[in-house]
């Protein structure tokens, strides 16, 4: 028998290439099982295709991929009833790195009708060699359909392989992996079952794990997204939603469609009905699953932009080219088109539901802050995202949109006013709103973590400029306050000059303002970013980029009137307290809390003494 064994050298620089496959090409050892199951499924699809023209090629009734672990011999066998390989096929397909029988076969199908073509997964010849990540010896015994003899290919992955005659009763292939010492996990049926369900749960070929002589089905074999919507119940959608996203609620929206034409893909996506337990802000990538011909490839293809990362589900394509490992997707035009099409469909769904108000507010409360990121990040989609935004307001209860705000604008109003802070309740009582309320001007109240960033990126909505009320120098003169105004304090100009001198190192300017009613002072941005952005810059240790604020004084307030009438020395001493009061109103701490407390205590004591 040994005389019939033929030894051959691999047809490429196998040492270097195998080292690449085993140590660099794949990031996870478990990928080997996906590759071998994919190859087995391809072989069975090829046999099913040939059976269309040759009855002798028909698959057996119980045809499936069988995975058999044997702990005693430390082997793992993957068997199929596929097309099989002759001696020449073994030498050409397995004896030459990066040459694939599947790829050659797919080229021969170019003239065949699309509906008759089997779903071939493998496109490169290195997937088989991933077996050497877990095995120190691999044997392949195969008998081709229509042939009477079988052959065994064997290699230790060290630069050569052997071929010898073998026995196999039926056509098909057996791949036997002699596992390495650190690969015990792949001898456990439960582990193998988990891997099949992870990577090949939806391929049409049945896969079974042989456990103590009994076959146990390991894959569903039915891809829900490939079925017509008319054949799927709401319960089936909900069950799949819970399985794909590990959720316990019902989806807020279900998107199921098939794209055909230049690109062929099917998609089944869900917008969750509740926030995930893991804060969504911590994860910046979309986790929509990419499948190619039902075989799971990755959930890191970024099929949706980060601002739609709350969407879950599956996209399955026939056309996407993959790189040699099928783990790292190439940035191909086809993938870019799929991303654009899927994103557009999700945005269209959100737009339609927002107009119908189908519980849109619950969606917004769950995922609104994430959606806002799209205004900042996605220039092309800003005009589509802006109508989807919802806000709290100084004028109405509940949520409101840009369009609704514009419908309530006063005659002559040319800007959409907004105010950003950390807490919406604090916003409602902010001194920044006093002058706007007095004039019947509505202000949008923004308190999400992204609100300091996106308004300037959007710029305007329907030609109405977005304007932060903290920017200062806002001209409200065309809108008269309801109930009129008191006369400004006498000597206010001298008082302003004294305060400005005293705070020269702290502020960019000191001026009077007509946008206060009940408060004595308020801060505004002295130029550059608004106050909330300045706070964020200071918290990030970038105070130099924050600039200095402007201190605005209400010349009609009793405190300012009294200080303006006092000696100039009193005005200079009061300047620091006024500045700290303005900081506290905006949610900041006094510059020196202890010194501020002493000044307030002293002022209270003096006031109490005067009353006595």
UniProtKB/TrEMBL annotation:
<dbReference type="Pfam" id="PF13589">
    <property type="entry name" value="HATPase_c_3"/>
</dbReference>
<keyword id="KW-0346">Stress response</keyword>
<comment type="subunit">
    <text>Homodimer.</text>
</comment>
<dbReference type="InterPro" id="IPR020568">
    <property type="entry name" value="Ribosomal_Su5_D2-typ_SF"/>
</dbReference>
<protein>
    <recommendedName>
        <fullName>Chaperone protein HtpG</fullName>
    </recommendedName>
</protein>
<keyword id="KW-0547">Nucleotide-binding</keyword>
<dbReference type="InterPro" id="IPR036890">
    <property type="entry name" value="HATPase_C_sf"/>
</dbReference>
<dbReference type="InterPro" id="IPR001404">
    <property type="entry name" value="Hsp90_fam"/>
</dbReference>
<dbReference type="InterPro" id="IPR019805">
    <property type="entry name" value="Heat_shock_protein_90_CS"/>
</dbReference>
<dbReference type="Pfam" id="PF00183">
    <property type="entry name" value="HSP90"/>
</dbReference>
<feature type="region of interest" description="C">
    <location>
        <begin position="536"/>
        <end position="612"/>
    </location>
</feature>
<keyword id="KW-0143">Chaperone</keyword>
<keyword id="KW-0963">Cytoplasm</keyword>
<comment type="similarity">
    <text>Belongs to the heat shock protein 90 family.</text>
</comment>
<feature type="region of interest" description="A; substrate-binding">
    <location>
        <begin position="1"/>
        <end position="326"/>
    </location>
</feature>
<dbReference type="InterPro" id="IPR037196">
    <property type="entry name" value="HSP90_C"/>
</dbReference>
<dbReference type="InterPro" id="IPR020575">
    <property type="entry name" value="Hsp90_N"/>
</dbReference>
<comment type="function">
    <text>Molecular chaperone. Has ATPase activity.</text>
</comment>
<keyword id="KW-0067">ATP-binding</keyword>
């Amino acid at each position: 028998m040994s005389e019939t064994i033929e030894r051959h050298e691999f047809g490429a620089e196998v040492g270097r290439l195998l080292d690449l496959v085993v140590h660099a090409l794949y990031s996870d050892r478990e990928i080997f099982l996906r590759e071998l199951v994919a190859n087995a499924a391809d072989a069975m699809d090829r046999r099913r295709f040939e059976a269309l023209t040759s009855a002798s090629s028909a698959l057996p009734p119980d045809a499936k991929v069988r995975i058999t672990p044997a702990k005693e011999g430390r082997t793992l066998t993957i068997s199929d009833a596929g097309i099989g390989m002759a001696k020449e096929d073994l030498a050409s397909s397995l004896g030459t790195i990066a040459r694939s029988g599947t790829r050659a076969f797919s080229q021969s199908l170019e003239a065949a009708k699309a509906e008759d073509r089997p779903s071939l997964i493998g496109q490169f010849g290195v997937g088989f060699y991933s077996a050497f990540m877990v095995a120190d010896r691999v044997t392949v015994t195969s008998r081709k359909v229509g042939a009477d003899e079988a052959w065994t290919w064997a290699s230790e992955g060290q630069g050569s392989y052997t071929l010898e005659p073998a026995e196999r009763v039926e056509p098909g292939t057996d791949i036997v992996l002699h596992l390495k010492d650190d690969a015990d996990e792949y001898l456990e049926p439960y582990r193998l079952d988990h891997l099949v369900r992870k990577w090949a749960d939806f391929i049409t070929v049945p896969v079974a794990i042989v456990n103590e002589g009994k076959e146990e089905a390991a894959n569903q074999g039915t891809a829900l997204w490939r079925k017509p919507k008319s054949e799927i119940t709401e319960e089936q959608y909900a069950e799949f939603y819970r399985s794909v996203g590990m959720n316990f609620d019902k989806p807020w929206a279900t998107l199921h469609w098939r794209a055909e034409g230049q690109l062929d893909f099917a998609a089944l996506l869900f917008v969750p009905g509740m926030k995930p337990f893991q804060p969504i802000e911590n994860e910046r990538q979309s986790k929509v699953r990419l499948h190619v011909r039902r075989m799971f490839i990755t959930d890191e293809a970024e099929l949706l932009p980060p601002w739609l990362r709350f969407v879950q589900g599956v996209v399955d394509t026939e056309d996407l080219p993959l790189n040699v490992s099928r783990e790292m997707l190439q940035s191909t035009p086809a993938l870019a088109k799929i991303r654009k099409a899927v994103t557009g469909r999700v945005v269209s769904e959100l737009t339609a539901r927002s107009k119908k108000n189908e519980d849109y507010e619950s969606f917004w409360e769950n995922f609104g802050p994430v959606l806002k990121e799209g205004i900042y990040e996605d220039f092309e989609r800003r005009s589509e995202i802006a109508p989807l935004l919802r806000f709290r307001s100084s004028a109405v209860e509940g949520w409101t949109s840009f369009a609704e705000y514009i419908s309530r604008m006063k005659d002559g109003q040319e800007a959409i006013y907004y105010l950003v802070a950390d807490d919406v309740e604090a916003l409602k009582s902010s001194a920044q709103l006093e002058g706007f309320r007095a004039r019947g001007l509505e202000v949008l109240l923004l308190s999400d973590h992204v609100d300091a960033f996106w308004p300037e990126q959007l710029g305007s909505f329907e030609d109405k400029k977005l304007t932060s009320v903290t920017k200062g120098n806002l001209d409200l003169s065309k809108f008269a306050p309801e109930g009129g105004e008191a006369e400004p304090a006498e000597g206010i100009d001298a008082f302003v000059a004294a305060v400005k001198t005293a705070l020269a190192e702290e502020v960019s300017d000191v001026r009077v303002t007509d946008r206060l009613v009940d408060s004595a002072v308020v801060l505004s941005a002295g130029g550059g970013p608004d106050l909330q952005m300045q706070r964020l810059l200071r918290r990030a240790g970038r105070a130099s980029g924050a600039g200095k604020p402007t201190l605005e004084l209400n010349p009609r307030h009793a405190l300012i009137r009294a200080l303006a009438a006092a000696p100039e020395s009193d005005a200079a001493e009061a300047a620091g307290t006024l500045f700290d009061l303005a900081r506290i109103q905006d949610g900041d701490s006094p510059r020196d809390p202890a010194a501020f407390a002493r000044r307030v205590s002293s002022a209270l004591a003096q006031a109490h003494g005067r009353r006595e």
